[in-house]
Amino acid sequence: MSMEQERDLTKRQMIVCDHVSKTFYTKNTETKVIADLNITANENEFLVLFGPGQCGKTTALNVMAGLETATSGTVTVGNEIVTKPGPERGFVYQTTALFPWYTVMKNVEYGPRARGMSKKERRKKAQYYIDLVGLGGFENSFPNQLSGGMQQRVGIARAYCNEPAVLFMDEPFGHLDAQTRYLMQEEIIRIWEKERRTVVFVTNNIEEAVYLADRVIVLTNCPTRVKKEFIIDLPRPRNYTDDKFLNLRAEIQDVVDKTL
Amino acid sequence: MKNKAKQKQIAIKILATIFSFLIFGLLWEMLVRFSDVGRVMPGPLETLQSFFEHFTEKYSAYTLPEHVWRSLRRVLTGYFFAAIAAIALGILMASYKTIDAIVSPLFNMVRPIPPVAWIPLAILWFGINDGSKYFLIFWASFLSMVQNVYAGTKSADPKLIGAAKMLGANDGHIFLTIVLPSAVPYIFSGLQLGINSAWAMAIGSEMIRSTDGVGWLIIRGMDNNNLLQELVGILAVGIVGFALASVLRGVEAKLCRWNKRGT
To answer: How far is B12 from chain A (nearest CA, A)?
Structure first.
């Protein structure tokens, strides 16, 4: 075990999912989406939830963020039990959830503004994060004038600008073309290394999971539970064609194949 | 390159417009000249001439622009209050289930009744003069606007509301920054419908009983068998209606730069 990991283990647990389950009820049916989920994420850890499509990853993330309530079990972030959405937790959406009537600047400063920060202060903060995600010069553009990758950068800056302790990302690169996706994976690591946060990142792409994660949690099919956990002990920046990278990838693939 | 293509498009559009008016005028002129229609109906050139002459010449007490202004004043007053009332009621109904439950049944009963059906009652309630006209214009445009404001207020994307909540916005802030902007394009199409209804109702109510306005002009033309006066009136109604709609579209384009409808 490396030195770094040893230090990780002494770190504070930021997110704790304790026996979380989620069932959706409609008139005549009930669909159990999450069976029994026990997950912890440490402070400043990059945790990836990986699972097949429609397995309930997004639901799990929504429950952790407070966008949905658990049917049973609790989610604790920091020292507080999550019951509703709140600014202590940032969220980056699968497809863009930017406010189309606001410019990039106004989107990014939305959180601080909603919480009553003075204009001067929030502008300064927003500018910092706009520059951080590499969108300097686009402050006054509207979302529909930006490409998909740029829109996701705005989404990331907007989530960061509230300075939440934890960030949830729901397949944020799923709708980008392959080339942009690689670029954004590099970018998100660069941003995260500069501004460390606890990140829970959902994906259905193994390569992306291994490239990004400190730790990958493989989920089973719906109703989902934790299948297996992998610590990705590779130095960054990682190389997609590195032997160790490919081995880990194969190892995870193996587990997933058995899930299906 | 892009600019040039755009210029070309605009040029084609203008030419097409001129062309369509020319064709229409030519057909009209031919109909008047070479058929029996000409015995009662003036041609396009004669109509245009009379139209411009009446910028200075009077129909009864007023020139044509003065008549237009009198109609317009009625429309804008009634419409202004109707817009405020419709926006307020639409938002309230969409935001509060109780208000919706109380108002909706009544509103849904009243809505299918054409506004003209209220003319006799309006005259009874508000008098034969401008009072009833203001009311009718208010009512006609109000009815056509409420529904859109309601739908617009309901149209906010739950995902965006969720995103706003995640960023720490309270209900009031969400209303101002998410719900209202989502509703704006709907409200504007409501305002468009409203101005059309208001203008139509103004002309209609002036036809019933009036001493001025474009509606009066047209109906008096009919009474006196003066087709030329009717045609001038109709032309004025068309131009003003078009102008009103254009002004609204312009305002919307300014306000909704972010929206595809607006650009």
So the answer is: 27
Q: What's the pLDDT tens digit per position in A21-39?
A: 999 998 888 989 999 999 9
Task: State the smallest CA–CA distance between residue A90 and chain B in angstroms.
Answer: 7
What are the phi and psi torsion angles at B83 (to 5°)? -65, -45
Tell me the pLDDT tens digit for each residue of B157-172: 999 999 999 999 999 9
Let me know whether B80 and B107 are in one domain: yes
The enclosing H or E element of A14 equals: strand A13-25
Q: What is the 3-state secondary structure (H, E, C) of A105-140?
A: HHHHCHHHHHCCCCHHHHHHHHHHHHHHCCCCCCCC
What ipTM, to 2 d.p.? 0.87
B168 vs A contacts (CB less than 8 Å): 86-87, 111, 114-115, 162
Q: Is residue B262 part of a domain?
A: no
Q: Is A214 exposed, middle or buried (0-12, 13-18, 19+ CB in 10 A)?
A: buried
Domains of chain A as residue ranges with CATH: 3-88+164-259 (3.40.50.300)
Which of B163, B168, B256 faces A86 most closely, judged by CB atoms? B168
